[in-house]
Design a protein that fits this description.
Length: 155
Amino acid sequence: MAEAALAPEQLDPRSAYPRLQREPFGVAALVLPFNWPLALTMTKLTSALTAGNTAVVKMPPTCPLAALQLAGALAAALPPGVVNVLAGPGSDLAQALVTHPGVDLISLTGGVVTGRAVMAAAAARLTPVLLELGGNDAAIIAPTSRSATSWWSGW
């Protein structure tokens, strides 16, 4: 699948750049939040693998059994080293991962404070960072609803 996704694409031959060549980054560090750990992991992981990268997945410490189940399933399906799953206390493990010199791309879903810390840590090596940060949640409240109770029902 990655080979097909990374195949060169011929563009307009009259263009100064008639060919588009996609290349993987290398090792993607995927740092996940406490909510929807498996769904978000699979979204990030399929993107990383399809683009030809390997991945180190840092699961949230609140989901150790999910991490073990995921690691087992991936170990059975993929060659060794393509995906590695880490589980443990949050900040120390995540800090070690995002500052590791073998990491070529960081993807974090989490809070703004954590996002700033990851961005600062990645800046020293100019590691690309993808941040999906919390704090803005959309909601639609119908005119016929009681706004005070409707607002809280979304969470």
